[in-house]
Amino acid sequence: MSGAWFDYTVNGFVIGNIYALLAVGLALIYGVANLVNFAHGSVYVVGAYTGWAAITYLDTPLPVTLLCVIAVSALVGVGIERIGLRPLHGSSRIAPLLATIGIALVLDQVLQLLFTPDPRAVPMQVPEWRVAIGGGTIGALDLLIAGIGMISAVVLYSFLRFTKLGWAVRATAQDSDAAQQMGVDVNRVNMAVFAIASALSGVSGVLVGMYYNQISTAMSFEATLKGIVALIIGGLGNVPGAIAGSLILGLTESYGIALFGTSYRNLFAFVLLIAMLVWRPNGLFAARRSLPPEPMTGTFIARSRPVAVPRWAVAAMIAVAALLPLLDQPYLLQIGANSLMYAMLALSLTLVAGTVGQVSLGHAALLAIGGYASGLLAMDAGWPVALAIPAAGLVTAALGTLLVFPAFRLTGHYVSIATLGIGEIVALVILNWTGLTRGAIGLGGIPPLEVFGIDLGSVEGTYWLCLAVLVLLALLQLRLLRSHLGRTWRAIRDDPVAARSYGVSGDRYKALAFGFGGFAAGISGAITAHAYSYINHETFGASISILALTMVILGGLGNVLGAVLGATLLIALPEAFRFLAEYRILIYGIVLLLLIRFRPQGLMGTV
């Protein structure tokens, strides 16, 4: 083995050890709470900045730095369980998952406000010597990370195997109801598990900072995804499997970088994730069997009677919206156009998540496909914009459905994880397929909006076009929901087993839902591309998927008018309060948490 490959192997094992600290925490939480904790990466960042602050301001030695990280991260974990999740006991089983997304948004924004988005260098606290071995080298930090990983595994094994609280954790993981009947304090167990998992995540964050000599407030999302990928490889709730899955992921990434370059690093991880979900959803270290029983249905429908809005009132609102350009307020119209474009995305997601019960966390990828499809058709193929936009909607419907199709047989957490991974794969393909998408440069000079020679590039023209398209898409969706197809979708959402027993093909109808939803999202992405004339792989990021989910929960899942209302409130209101602009993500996270806790049916009720 050459020296370079030895170094890549060492790097793979080191990164795998860091991922293991993340994945083991996720496995513990899933084992006792049946929950994939999307706030885990945020705690990882809390640990990284705690370590940086301890070294920078207190000049702590390494052991004290690690103790500070463990203490602060554990306290944050306890707070997440006690304040954010325990009040949701007895709610729909996907409510805690959505709550962790809201908690992640809040933590990330608080950290950004405290430390700014600028990266920080973490001072090295170990000697920088390296020893030559077999043509490669291994350093003190490599050995430290490997040692911490092994010590953590031994301590965790001893805790679970030989302590009373560890026995309670194992009993709760096997059957929480039976454990509670035998006198186990399940709340205490959950709190202890969140503390342990968060401490491991925090240590992982500070070690990454030392290894790469840099931390930033933007690294939480990627950390969460890497932990989840390692967890899926090993098997949900399987602690030894999480360790093995982390090492496999670390080596796969390291060797992938050696062969293809750094820009492909994350692509390998997410392709591996989708492959595991499709062919081995239980993980590599579980017996071959069907998917384990899911503790939730895969949707977030809180039973309620939707708010009845008379048709004349809806027509009046459309008329008022159409007359808005007469006020001659360009800034107001720009906000309105943005709200309308987001409303198209919300329509798409409320159909998929609310009506069919497939909670998608990667829906922004459909915007990206639509934007790039329309931009490329207009720029490279010379199509008129009026034809490129609907064609982009059809391309998005077909390609989006094809990408998500392997996930149709999955349920619950698996659907959310799969769509999240697919969304990241789309962004990375756009980044790396330079021959088609121009890579990191993006698409510039996209032709402005026009319909058969009529210039709609002005603010007024963009607004009227968005309003007309939104009304047409909303009417189409209402017609679908009131048809036999809509009733079939709701049957699949409410009880997929019963639907199958009546001969309903779940995959076919889910594909139709994603097709219609993808068409609406693709149209929105296409209009966005032409309205702003430039897009790149970061234009439609994962935060837009979370924002869209917040919109549809705010309005009421499955509710067409609610989706439009949710988009209008979350896009227009923050613009009305410009002094709150830097707190926007924080507001979104708090809104999501409050909705899940106090108004899960949304403002307009679920359908």
Automatic annotation (TrEMBL):
What membrane topology is annotated for this entry?
Multi-pass membrane protein
Q: Which UniProt keywords apply?
A: Cell membrane, Membrane, Transmembrane, Transmembrane helix
UniProt key word Transmembrane helix: yes
* InterPro entries tied to this protein: ABC_transp_permease, LivM-like
Instruction: From the Swiss-Prot or TrEMBL record, state where the protein is found.
Output: Cell membrane
Cytoplasm: is it a keyword of this entry? no
Top-level taxonomic group: Bacteria
Q: Which residues cross the membrane?
A: 12-31, 38-58, 64-85, 97-115, 135-160, 191-212, 227-252, 264-287, 307-327, 339-361, 381-405, 417-441, 461-481, 511-532, 544-573, 585-604
Official protein name in the record: ABC transporter permease
**What organism is listed for this UniProt entry?**
Belnapia arida
